[in-house]
Amino acid sequence: MDEIHLPLAAQKMEAHRHHNDDNDDDEEEEHFHQVCRSYQQYATFHQTIQQGVNQRVERLLAKSQGQEDGGKPGPTISSILPLSMMPHHVESHRQNKAFCEATVRNQFFLDSVLRYSGVMTSQEVLKEMQQSKRRRSIEWATEDQMSKIDSVLKSVARDWSAEGSHERSVVYDRMLMALEKYLPLCRREKMTTDAGPPRIAVPGSVKSTWLVLMQQKGLGRLAWEIHSKGYSVQGSDFSLPMLLASDFVLNGCAVPDFNTASGDMEGTSVHRWRQFSISPWIAETKNVTTFENRIRTVTVPDVDPSSIQNIAGSSETAPEFTMLAGEFLSLYSSFLPQKQAHHECMDKNHSHQHSSGEKFHGIACSFFLDTAPSLPDYLITIYHMLVDGGLLLHFGPLMYHWSGHGALLPRDLDNGNENCEMNSRYHGRNSFLDGRYLSSVDFTWLEVREMIVNAGFEILEEEIDIPANYTANRHSMMEVLYKCVFLVAKKKNAQQ
């Protein structure tokens, strides 16, 4: 990828050295270390949770022992528990061993991510602790932090395993077909015809390919698929746990090999790729049919991520693939007219902002728009990021990430102030919340659609009630099925 020459971890440490006096950089560095600790402590964390479950079973048996000594006929706790849950039974030992092996499989993948990023692995941390002459306290990851690592593993399975292909195809196929339909790579001159779909015209463009932004790229598969078609792609995401894993999958899984069978001493470079067996669902304890389903494995990645590095074209015309890390408005509010710029979202050092000044021909949003703390701000920014005639592609439900907390309640009005911005009781009650919970508004789809039109877009395609999963476990007893919207909209020309 063109803008990434160092692993993300190395880039962040390098940026920290240049801006060490900035409090924002200190907070970012601390967050980075928190994420790395979560990666490093994964196996220990889940093995300890399982140890706690075993202790609960032992206490249950001990508590019921006195009741069973009465000798009354009938079933008892010890008689009805499965052998796999009976302490010291061979079946229990087998199951505990299999669970530990599953955590180690996952830890091996996570350690590979850390090693590629230039960070100590779990084993290196353990070795350092054992060799240390003085005892030091350990700062353990929280349950919330570890749940994000569980989500990373599920997302890896969704994006880069054969099992995730059906879930991907529902979303990605629509996105790819729309890009090829409205932004075909075969022609760059003005493309409008009376027959067939409207094509996007970019006056004066001399580039050989279209520039597409893949927002909330997750583990990067859709961005990779778009680039493999010949488009220049910029992927961006805010989640550091996801960014570290996607950086590794996209850039760190290639294994160069040299074939000297032909007698050529220099050899011919042949690319293979590393694959891993992971158990993405071991953290799930509800709606599980069998223990084996809980620890089952998938192989990732299912394709060679480095295979797109040799897309035809000279260095001047070949499509580019870049990544940016950061919150959406912080990265792209530079596109806004200066009077509309969100000063609170601008990066002081501009080190992580999109800096080329080149507008996008398409912006693909998969399960993204409802993550906005202020959806109108996102739509206005997207409008300014696109060239005239540029495409907005949207797929997803309306879950609203910043919803559900910070509502104005009747008791907040007891002091007579109905303005929540000025209400001290309201702010005191919600002081622990991220401020984005206090500004988020939940819109209906028709309201979102109207805002898109009012912002200056023309709806080209709209499909509703599309059933779609997200990181679903197909063997679970419970299924979360979203009824999603797929929308293709074109930015109208300024004079329209």
Account of the 3D structure:
This protein is 39% helix and 15% strand. The protein has 496 residues and is α/β, with parallel strands linked by helices. The strands form 3 sheets. A 7-stranded mixed beta sheet has the order 7-2-1-8-9-11-10, with helices on both faces. The chain has a two-stranded antiparallel ribbon with strand order 3-4. A two-stranded antiparallel sheet has the order 5-6. β3 and β4 form a beta hairpin. α3 (42-68) runs antiparallel to α5 (90-116), α5 (90-116) packs across α10 and α13 (375-385) packs parallel to α15 (445-455). It starts with 7 loop residues before the first helix and ends in a 5-residue tail after the last strand. Residues 1-21, 187-207, 260-268 and 342-351 have low confidence and may be disordered.
Layout of strands and helices, then pairs:
Blueprint: H1 8-18, H2 23-40, H3 42-68, H4 77-80, H5 90-116, H6 122-131, H7 143-160, H8 165-182, E1 211-215, H9 221-228, E2 232-237, H10 240-252, E3 254-259, E4 268-273, E5 276-278, H11 291-295, E6 298-300, E7 321-325, H12 328-332, E8 360-366, H13 375-385, E9 386-396, H14 424-429, H15 445-455, E10 457-468, E11 482-491
Parallel strand pairs: 1-2, 1-8, 2-7, 8-9
Antiparallel strand pairs: 3-4, 5-6, 9-11, 10-11
Helix pairs in contact: 1-2, 3-5, 5-10, 7-10, 13-15
